[in-house]
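Action item from last week, closing it out:
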Amino acid sequence: MDAKAGQAARLREVALLFLRLGATAFGGPAAHIAILEDEVVRRRAWLTREEFLDLLGVSSLIPGPTSTELAIHIGFRRAGWAGLLLAGACFITPAALIVGGLAWAYTRFGALPEVAGLLSGVKPVVVAVVAQALVGFGRAAVKTRLLGALGVAGAAASFLGANELLVLFAAGALSAASRWASLRARADTRMGALAFVPLAALVPASAAAAPFALWRLFLFFLKVGSVLFGSGYVLLAFLRADLVERWGWLSEAQLIDAVAVGQVTPGPLFTTATFIGYLLGGLPGAAVATVGIFLPAFAFAALSGPLVRRVRASKVAGAFLDGVNVASLALMAVVTFEIGRASLVELKGALLSLASLLILMRFRVSASWLVLAGAAVGLLSSALR
């Protein structure tokens, strides 16, 4: 097979994988990360677990949706710049189309379909999927006692309400400082910071209501995608401040429904922007909002991706990345604990989670299909009540 045919085959593999995940990967960022590890490390061996963890660490440090940026990084590693664009587009598009369809139904019928049953089946499976992935991640990431201690400290800090980005940087800095001290030499390693234009300045900051315009919608979501770190609750705060309180484009109920749709549909949570864009401007609004919020993720991944190997080549910078990796896993563990505490209180949820864990350990079942099966079980049990 010549180089051109090999590249075409790799691009086809990337497209098929991420189209499927964009249509079936329920459960939010922690679940997406576990599913991606299952697909590209265990099942396809595109990356080693250590390489995957490095990409996860870098994705956690840059603004935007972590799991989407991780998908973009994987596409770049597998098929170069074309793979970078294709992986991101294929992961986002099916989810955006699903959310757009729900937005159409919402504007037509004025309500969302029942989603509580779906969530009751998805969440227990997500707990099992992420727990199983964390075991494998932990073996690769916890290389020293210090890294293990940093992971425990990161989890504790997150439980106490510490900012996610602060936890990541603190763990990285402590790990790097320890490595520097052990080398007993000054390491002239410079961790480059990704700079971006303060796009908030492009969006009018007037407290008065502003008339709706597609360009204003685009700039708003471009700003959000460029500066947002953290969970979906942080996204909710950003959206509420401008769209509800400042400009009055959405009601509080519409905003809550938009975030709920992002949480219960497969693919990135940031497709909440697609729903909001459709409510405000129909199909053009949905397209503008989707492009605006995801465009920075492609830019940040393109800038940071080629630097990962250089960072790993430096002992001190590599130690920084090791610290970030264990902190990322600590944050995932906290999110999984919170989901489990809420979803495993009933016997049905606990049994579903245990069965999912046993299936993952015994058989080479794709985690994405297992999560989809959990959604079906939840909907079925809800219909039979």
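Closing note: The chain has 15 helices and no strands.
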